[in-house]
Each structure stands twice: as structure tokens, then as C-alpha cells.
TrEMBL record:
It comes from Streptomyces albiaxialis. Keywords: DNA recombination, DNA-binding, Endonuclease, Hydrolase, Metal-binding, Nuclease, Transposition, Zinc. Residues 173-287 form the Probable transposase IS891/IS1136/IS1341 domain. NCBIfam families: guided_TnpB, IS200/IS605 family accessory protein TnpB-like domain. This is RNA-guided endonuclease TnpB family protein.
Length: 405
């Protein structure tokens, strides 16, 4: 059975004393992290062996508590400090795996700063955190925190991460492992999705999906807040206020974007038995002109939501390699007629005479590369017609079995 890890986040409302205690926990976790990073960097520069986590834990947590410089480490849960060392381990592992080509290259672990916009601490079962009968989150050495339980947790998680985001909001984040919760009844359509530049996503059935108005509005507000911030004098009080406004607007955009990703992915998973996307390996694109729009569109987040929902609801999900020439091949007859400049949105295949919409053609090719049986008719545009405008999304007939020849 497929196990799926789902993240659940709930807003926390700590009181004044609890906020101070959390600030202390964030600070201590950061200090231990930085101490351990320094110990390892020093060992490396002196040609000594890589210090083990167990030794660092003894030296930088247990023993450090009895020194005057680090005595305050005793004021927070030891679990929080040990988890901070684990985070550093994970950062090193990702870095080394990147060097060995096992995953996209990452930078070496960096020192954390009190100015980092996102701060977090993690409590495992060892910390004996709990949810009280009154529905509060009880954290050792912090207290009972008020939680807004916006969803039901499917099971009791063993670990909770407390996060403070750039907008100064607090969240409790749980990872819950579940099996496929509900296997949806089987449906016929199979779908390829292409990341459009003009549209958020283009589907092989001919639909072009765009960000909804609530997201565009949040983005507009963010831009306005950023403009205002840039006009404020450096070091002024007003600049601080403007910066907070930008952080809030940022958080709202992120929320709205996630909401949109959830809505769209739920719809696609319900309506299709199998879904294929192109693995864009966003990191690899970071140096190209595409990068900004790819990051802005949050494509990676959308794909990962789609992936876990597929697993959860018993649907097929396929990622195809990122070097498939999706815009160079006619989705109707399969002939490869080479790259086309980006401004070419519609063209006629020289071999079979099909009139092809660039984005939909790519989406059909994605589906075909993944071995899905999609209708290719969506990719065809009747001569003289412009590609489907925004308002037309969703009016296409249900796809028929592949009619490639
Ligand atoms: Zn053709």
C-alpha cells in the first residue's frame, strides 16, 4: 500500500509570555545549530574528521548548559535543541548528495540569523508535547497554546513543528502519514498538463487554466506594498511599517496561491484517471529567463500537491523527463519538425496539415510521452481561429480515445 505524508498546518495564537518563550526556543535552536556548524567547519579546515552528531549533542547541549555562556540553553526543551542538530545533519546530507549528483545541487549549510524571516522549532514524541482536552497545544517549557483547528487531523501525529513566518504569524505544522484515504471511482479521461507561459497550466483536453481573481488581487496588493516600501527612507520608522505590510502581503499571496493549487488539483484528480506532467526540475531552470515565471507560478508546489493527491485518491501520476521536445513534435502525426521561436503560438504541421496550438500541442505530447491515451483533437485549431481565450476554459467536449493517425 502506498503511504502518503500529508502536512497539516494550523494557526497558533500564543499569548505574550508564550511568544517570549517561543522566541527563546527559536534563539536557542539557532545557537545550537550555528555552534554545530562552526564545530564542523573548524574540523574541516583543520583536516580533522567530521564531528559526529552524538558527540556534538553531548558537547554543545549537555555540557554547554553547565557553562555560564550557554547556561540559558537549559530554559528550553532539550528535544528542540537535538532536533536543531538533526536539521543541520539533513542540510549536510542534501549538500553532499547534491555534490554526488543524487539530487539537485544545493549550497553548503549556512549560519542562521535572528533576522531570518522564517523561524521554527520541532518537538518530537520525546518532548512529551500534547493536545489538551480543551484543544490547546501543550508544549514543554512554553505552555498551552491556543490553536485554530481549521481541519480534522486524520490521526495523531508524533511530531509538531512550530513556525513563525515572515508576517509574524505562528503555526503548528504536523506531518501525518496516511494510506490512500478514498479511492475515487474510476473515470475514463487521462490528461497531460503543460506549464504555459501565458497561462498557469494548459491541459491536453484544450483547457487553459489561469490564476483566479483572488490570487491576482493578492499579487496586485503585494506589488503595491513593495512599491511603497521602496519609496520609504532607509532606517525610518515608516520603512519598518512598510516592510511589515510587504511581509503580510507576501503571506497572503502564498496562501491564495496554495488555495488555488488545491482547488485546481482537486478538480483535475476528480475528473481524470491518470495525469502526466513534465518534470521541469525547477532548480535546473534557475539560471534561465524562464526561471522567474516558473517560480512565480509555483509550479513545483502545484505538481507536488497533484502528486500526493493522486496517491491519496488512487489515481495514476506520471512525471516525464524534462528533455522531451514537447514543442518540436506534432501531436497529431508525431513528426519532429524542430524548435519554433517562442512567439509562434499556432502553426500548421507541414506533414499532416494539422493546425496546432503551441501549448495544447505540448500538453498532448506530455500525455503521450507518459503513455497515456489522450485525445489529440484538443491540440487542433481550426484554421482562422485564435487559440481559446480565457473565458472559454472548460467548455471543451470530453476527450475521446486517441486518434493520432
Ligand atoms: Zn503532423
Amino acid at each position: 500500500m502506498i503511504r502518503v505524508q500529508l502536512r497539516y498546518s494550523f494557526r497558533l495564537y500564543p499569548g505574550t509570555g508564550q511568544r517570549a518563550a517561543l522566541a527563546m526556543a527559536f534563539g536557542c535552536a539557532r545557537v545550537v545549530y550555528n555552534d554545530a556548524l562552526r564545530a564542523r567547519e573548524t574540523a574541516r579546515s583543520e583536516g580533522m574528521p567530521f564531528p559526529k552528531t552524538g558527540d556534538l549533542s553531548k558537547q554543545l547541549i549537555t555540557e554547554a548548559k553547565s557553562t555560564p555562556e550557554r547556561a540559558w540553553l537549559a530554559e528550553v526543551s532539550a528535544v528542540v535543541l537535538q532536533q536543531s542538530l538533526r536539521d543541520l545533519d539533513a542540510a549536510y546530507r542534501n549538500f553532499f548528495d547534491g555534490l554526488q549528483g543524487k539530487r539537485p545541487r544545493m549550497g553548503a549549510p549556512r549560519y542562521k540569523s535572528r533576522k531570518d524571516t522564517r523561524q521554527s522549532v520541532r518537538f518530537t514524541a520525546n518532548a512529551r508535547w500534547s493536545i489538551t482536552t480543551g484543544g490547546k497545544l501543550r508544549l514543554p517549557k512554553i505552555g498551552d497554546l491556543k490553536v485554530k483547528w481549521s481541519r480534522t487531523l486524520p490521526s495523531v501525529p508524533s511530531t509538531v513543528t512550530v513556525v513563525k513566518d515572515s508576517a509574524g504569524r505562528y503555526f503548528a505544522s504536523f506531518v501525518v502519514e496516511t494510506g490512500p484515504e478514498v479511492v475515487l471511482p474510476e473515470v475514463a479521461p487521462e490528461l497531460g498538463i503543460d506549464l504555459g507561459l501565458g497561462h498557469f497550466a494548459v491541459l491536453s483536453d484544450g483547457t487553459k487554466a489561469d490564476s483566479p481573481r483572488f490570487l491576482r488581487r493578492a499579487e496586485k496588493r503585494l506589488k503595491k506594498a513593495q512599491r511603497e516600501l521602496s519609496r520609504k527612507e532607509k532606517g525610518s520608522k515608516n520603512r519598518d511599517k512598510a516592510r511589515t505590510r510587504v511581509a503580510r502581503a507576501h503571506a497572503r499571496v502564498a496562501d491564495a496561491r496554495r488555495e488555488f493549487h488545491h482547488q485546481l488539483s482537486t478538480k483535475l484528480i476528480r475528473e481524470n484517471q491518470a495525469i502526466a506532467v513534465e518534470d521541469l526540475a525547477v532548480k535546473g531552470l534557475a539560471r534561465t529567463r524562464l526561471a522567474k515565471s516558473v517560480h512565480d507560478a509555483g509550479w513545483a508546489q502545484f505538481v507536488s500537491i497533484l502528486e500526493y493527491k493522486a496517491a491519496r485518491y488512487g489515481r495514476t501520476f506520471v512525471k516525464i523527463g524534462r528533455f522531451e521536445p514537447t514543442s518540436q513534435v506534432c501531436s497529431q502525426c508525431g513528426v519532429k519538425d524542430g524548435p519554433k521561436p517562442l512567439h509562434v503560438r499556432v502553426w500548421t504541421c507541414g506533414t499532416c496539415g494539422s493546425v496546432l496550438d503551441r501549448d495544447i500541442n505540448a500538453a498532448v505530447n506530455v500525455a503521450k510521452a507518459a503513455g497515456l491515451a489522450v485525445s489529440a483533437c484538443g491540440a487542433q485549431v481550426r484554421p482562422g481561429l485564435v487559440p481559446a481565450p480565457r473565458g472559454e476554459a472548460g467548455t471543451h467536449p470530453t476527450p475521446q480515445p486517441s486518434t493520432a493517425r
